[in-house]
Amino acid sequence: MSPAIPVRCLARPLAGGLVVPWVSLIHNGHAVFGSLDADRARRAFLKRLCQICGQPLQERFFVIVRPADQRQGYSPEPGLDPECQPYAAAHCPMLIPREFAISEVLSTRNPWPDPPNSHPRSSGSAARRATGSCHEEGV
After folding, report:
1. CA 80, CA 50: separation in Å to the nearest integer?
2. N or C: which end of the chain has fewer CB within 10 A?
3. Which of 11, 2, 28, 1 is nearest to 89 (CA)?
4. Quick one: pLDDT at residue 118?
5. In angstroms, rounded to a whole number, what is the distance separating the alpha carbons of residues 36 and 53?
6. Are 126 and 112 a contacting pair, CB within 8 Å?
7. How many CB atoms are closer than 10 A to CB 21?
């Protein structure tokens, strides 16, 4: 049975019955699944927001890690709240056919400093290095 829409996402718009992630690009009023809105992705990194619901991440959150991300040592994707992660893993058209791992992160401090000209890629790298513990499970 697929996970239901998370309570944190009930206010999010739907497209084709799926929650439109907070970081998704909207073009001419339509969600472009798989494309990130650069400003929202940056804000998600810097303000520590869930990429699906847009709400603040807590101490425990998840990151999506592709094999290429693992080799480079960072994930270019913002984190996911533990309530949103199972929904995304089950329903996201970009994740279902692909090979990836989900890493659980426990962060006791904000790994994203707020530099004036930071880029999500560099913030993701800092986040990956600065986090406390991490458990990866292949999906």
Report:
1. 5
2. N
3. 2
4. 46
5. 14
6. yes
7. 27
Identity of residue 111: P
- Residues (pLDDT < 50) of the chain are 112, 115-139
CA nearest to 75, candidates 103, 55, 96, 47:
103
Rounded to 10°, the helix 120-130/38-47 angle is: 30
Query: What's this model's pTM, rounded to 2 decimal places?
Result: 0.70
pLDDT in tens, 70-83: 888 888 889 999 99
- Cα 4 from Cα 91, distance rounded (Å): 10
The pLDDT value given to residue 41: 95
Consecutive H or E run containing 65: strand 60-65
pLDDT at 34: 84
Q: State whether residue 60 is helix, strand or coil.
A: strand
